[in-house]
Amino acid sequence: MAVTGSGTDKKAATEKKNTLVMWAALAVWLAVSLLVHAFFSGRNPRLDAGAVFVSGAGPILILSALLLVIQGVLSWGVFIRLAVGILCVGLGVGELTEVAKKLIWQPVGIAELAVAVGAVIWRVFGRRRLTAAN
Q1: Which long-range contacts (CB under 8 A, 24 or more apart) does 100-103 make?
Q2: Among 32, 52, 54, 83, which is most exposed with the fewest C-beta within 10 angstroms?
Q3: Predicted pLDDT at 5
Q4: pLDDT, tens digit, for every residue of 48-95?
């Protein structure tokens, strides 16, 4: 028998709401990206809809992950959002600016490695905590 109002149910509901808001924000940003491409790509060929979308999707994903962490929800979805968000920021900066690729991808690689290590540590210590509780 499931207890209603338990911490797990609240965290799942919080993650679901956050995910819906994230997808809505990404859909709105896609529309904005298409408008920017339609109106401004003639002046600046770098303002391609894909580059604009990716550069804005990264911060949306990172913000979504950080809000989940602040609310106490830590799941694989948080790590995936962080990893994809960091990758999108790197892609967006690379496409929209003339910054050297080496200057972009070294910090992105380090951040991706930090997210991966964090996910592994979370997985290892999360399992130990669960087995110690039983």
Answers
A1: none
A2: 32
A3: 58
A4: 888 899 999 999 999 999 999 898 888 888 999 999 999 999 888 888
C-beta of residue 85 within 8 angstroms of C-beta of residue 58 = yes
Angle between helices 7-40 and 76-96 (to 10 degrees): 10
Q: Which of 114, 105, 94 is nearest to 54 (CA)?
A: 94
CA–CA gap between residue 62 and residue 60 (Å, rounded): 6
Structure tokens at 107: 């910090």
Residue 12's closest CA among 98, 90, 73? 73
Which pair of tokens denotes residue 71? Answer: 């609310």
pLDDT tens, 44-57? Answer: 877 888 889 999 99
DSSP letters for the chain:
-PPTT-HHHHHHHHHHHHHHHHHHHHHHHHHHHHHHHHHHTTT-TT--HHHHHHHHHHHHHHHHHHHHHHTT--SHHHHHHHHHHHHHHHHHHHHHS---HHHHHHHHHHHHHHHHHHHHHHHHHHHHHHHHH-
Which tokens go with 121? 């540590």
